[in-house]
Amino acid sequence: MLKYIREHLGAKLVLANLAVIIIGVIVLAITIQLIIPSAYDRHLGNASAGTGTGSGQGLGQGAGGPSGAQGTGRTLFENFRAGIFEAFGYAATALVAAALLVSLFLSRRIVAPVRKLTDASQHIAEGDYEKRVKVQGVDEIAQLAGCFNHMAGQLEQAETLRRQLIGDVTHELRTPLTSIKGYMEGLVDGVLPPTPETFNQIHQEADRLSRLVDDLQELSRVEAKAFSLDVHPVAVSSLVQTTLKRLAPQAAAKRIDLGSDLPADLPPILADEDRITQVLVNLAANAIQYTPEGGRVTISAGQHGDEVQVAVTDTGIGIPPEHIGNLFTRFYRVDKSRSRGAGGGSGIGLTIARHLVEAHGGRIWAGSEGEGKGSTFTFSVKTC
Ligand SMILES: Nc1ncnc2c1ncn2[C@@H]1O[C@H](COP(=O)(O)OP(=O)(O)OP(=O)(O)O)[C@@H](O)[C@H]1O
Ligand SMILES: [Mg+2]
After folding, report:
1. Buried b (16+ CB within 10 A) or exposed e, 77-113
2. In 3D, which of 40, 267, 291, 16 has the Cα closest to residue 139?
3. 333 CB within 6 A, ligand 1
4. Ligand 1: which atom is nearest the Cα of residue 316?
5. Element housing 326 (H / E)
6. Cβ partners under 8 Å of residue 200, min gap 6
7. CA 377 from centroid of its chain's CA atoms
8. Cβ count near 283 (within 10 Å)
9. pLDDT digit string (tens) for 79-90?
10. pLDDT of 254-289, one tens digit each?
């Protein structure tokens, strides 16, 4: 019972009303008890004394009521009524005062957390995302305060991410823009010769910029979950073949041995073929990008329960253990100095891959023995 009251605001309000009524009745009873003798003496006692019959008789005559005998009887009745009204007047005043005090106290206790919530929400509306409400008790208002704090936490996190994103995007855009500006200034000043090679460099920087903008657009789309999946059974071998074909030129350019190792009896997976190919191409492109010339990149797959795990293993630069957990965070790069221009990227590819795999209900993770020992990126997707 106590637990129920503690957890329900409705029960607390009913109890508060009940308390006001009970306290009111007690105050009424006590006041009447205190006032009645003096009121009696003032009205009925005096009237009885006037008739010379004493108080006992006075009452006896008064019992005749308003329709009783004229003169003394009417006087007694009127005095009796006046006595009652006087007692009631005092009692009612005391009751109203007591009820007001108790109601004020109780409503303050109930309204106080709502006020705190209003105050905190005003702070948040003004951009102060650190504001929280102290949660006391377990009733609906305490639950509301808990939800409010959770919402404030999420907003604060979103705001931090937004600021971080703007900072990161600005940084990423500045690098190629500075480069293009440098080339142009060199051309204008005559320091750089206007040769096809110079124009080609400018074109490459503009191309990087354009790819970065495309990636950012894709990132915002997948992060906002603003894409739909056309899910149907897909043969893993077919998506591996597509990936190998698409990346063959890049692998050949770096003399990397790009191949696959698939068991024959692999069940089809339930996926959006284009999206899951995008994931695999992303992982394999990374493997080629972060593997020195002459290395090897292998795509393998295997069934584990009701899912198929697809892995891309390379003999590349590897990943130090402290970085493994952050690779799927946007703009995260192990080697910050490797920008797109220096053979690195902007740290968006794996974030997009993670969102796409998670949209399929799967997982994606990385593993590496350490620097220089290659790495393996694996994702899982449910079978049909
Ligand atoms: N196969 C790999 N071997 C070693 N490091 C890797 C490998 N794949 C990814 N990484 C590390 O993870 C980081 C994030 O990879 P991600 O694909 O998200 O971004 P990126 O390759 O830097 O740029 P882009 O957005 O152009 O793909 C890379 O910068 C790199 O440091
Ligand atoms: Mg990449």
Report:
1. bebbeebbebbbebbeebbeebbeebbeebeeeeeeb
2. 16
3. yes
4. 3
5. none
6. none
7. 30
8. 25
9. 888 888 888 888
10. 999 999 999 999 999 999 999 999 999 999 999 999
